[in-house]
Write a structure and sequence with these properties.
Blueprint: H1 22-25, H2 32-44, H3 47-62, E1 72-77, H4 84-98, H5 100-111, H6 126-153, E2 159-164, H7 171-200, H8 205-218, H9 225-245, H10 249-269
Parallel strand pairs: 1-2
Helix pairs in contact: 2-7, 3-8, 4-7, 5-7, 6-9, 6-10, 7-8, 7-9, 7-10, 8-9
Length: about 280
């Protein structure tokens, strides 16, 4: 889309050098008044809805006869037990449906004269993005595991079961696809799009990161209070790094790697180590 001579463009200065294209593209057809409703609409059909359901599930767990630690939160489970082909089809369809909001974000960015490149969701810097993502995954993944074990043994978290799929040929590919789905959906929406739009609306960096982090924690409430707090901490780190780098892709890489290790590693370690619930 090209600039129209004489057309007013509302641009917000880039305080920390992120969203590098916005200074050139600004906002076309999107006023600050419309940013709030747009954000609400995007999350009402995606992770905001997940947050509501997650809260309800937590209330259900808290009011159940069993203690939190005696209950299970399955991340990737069978959708059609005993019917492997139907199970596979349902998982693939679910992944496609779950990443659809990313397409919505791409469309809305294009409508405002921007693109996925604006939030750094592209492969312009594959080497740097991969290295940053891998390093971040090592730090966050290791710390997150320790915190989860502490939260579980403290009785404030459910027993999180990353994988309960049948031992079918498609098990590992589906786990990797589920991990990639989580990385793309969450980081594009919660790190890239949300922080970008909140900055355009005039929010301060820390206020924006706080909102993003609380949202991230809220749709993990189904895991218990440990999942909530742990993901808020992860959200603060990821949010500040996005504001510093102006790139969503390293966060996508990191999130995907963390989930791949959790999903696949759980199946390899289950029953073989004493410290894993």
């Amino acid at each position: 889309m090209e600039d129209v001579p004489g057309r007013p463009v509302a641009a917000v200065p880039d305080e920390q050098g992120s969203d590098e294209q916005q200074g050139q593209d600004g906002l076309r057809g999107l006023t600050p008044r419309l940013i709030g409703p747009e954000i609400v609409a995007v999350f009402a059909v995606s992770l905001g809805a997940s947050a509501l359901l997650s809260l309800i599930r937590l209330v259900g767990a808290l009011t159940a006869p069993k203690e939190l630690g005696d209950q299970h939160a399955v991340l990737v489970g069978s959708l059609a037990p005993g019917r492997p082909w139907l199970d596979l089809t349902l998982h693939l369809a679910g992944i496609a449906v779950n990443v659809a909001p990313v397409g919505l974000v791409a469309y809305l960015l294009a409508r405002s004269g921007e693109s996925m490149r604006t939030i750094g969701a592209d492969w312009r810097e594959p080497g740097r993005d991969t290295l940053r993502g891998a390093a971040l995954a090592a730090v966050i993944g290791g710390t997150g595991l320790v915190f989860y074990l502490f939260a579980f043994r403290s009785g404030i978290n459910l027993n999180v079961v990353p994988d309960s799929l049948p031992d079918a040929w498609w098990r590992v590919p589906v786990l990797v696809a589920e991990a990639a789905q989580n990385g793309v959906l969450e980081e594009v929406l919660v790190s890239g799009y949300l922080l970008h739009r909140l900055r355009q609306r005039g929010w301060s960096p820390w206020r924006s990161v706080g909102a993003s982090a609380v949202l991230r924690g809220s749709y993990h409430l189904y895991q218990g209070f440990g999942g909530f707090v742990g993901n808020i901490a992860m959200g603060v780190v990821f949010g500040r790094l996005y504001q510093r780098w102006g790139r969503t892709m390293p966060l996508i890489v990191a999130h995907t790697v963390i989930d791949v290790v959790a999903f696949v590693g759980y199946g390899l370690l289950r029953g073989r180590v004493s410290w894993l619930p």
